Amino acid sequence: xxxxxxxxxxxxxxxxxxxxxxxxxxxxxxxxxxxxxxxxxxxxxxxxxxxxxxxxxxxxxxxxxxxxxxxxxxxxxxxxxxxxxxxxxxxxxxxxxxxxxx
Length: 102
Ligand code: HEC
Hints:
mainly alpha, Cytochrome Bc1 Complex, Chain D, domain 2
């Protein structure tokens, strides 16, 4: 259990450093790209949505709703887990980045 403080410190460093990261970095770090594709189009599963170039407000709202549980349709549960590590400020940054993806 001696490892625990080390792991905790590393996690805190990771989380606090990413709070200042830009949208592109967050998109990779928060594993969005694993499911939605590096380009926001080549999705992991055929029933996962392409999100590149979507309207910024819509992206923000869907992320917030999946996080809160207000949106629990379809495959929303697949994404809900990761939203625990995405803050509201990070949602805004990522949404801005995704909306500008070509
Ligand atoms: C484990 C896979 C997974 C991860 C990781 C994931 N998502 Fe999703 N996401 C999904 C799935 C599946 C849906 C569709 C849910 C449904 O069927 O309603 C979705 C839905 C969305 C939507 C709404 C799309 C629409 O057209 O309504 C947005 C925006 C989105 N994700 C962005 C993100 C971002 C940004 C991240 C990173 C913080 C992320 N997702 C991480 C699987 C994932």
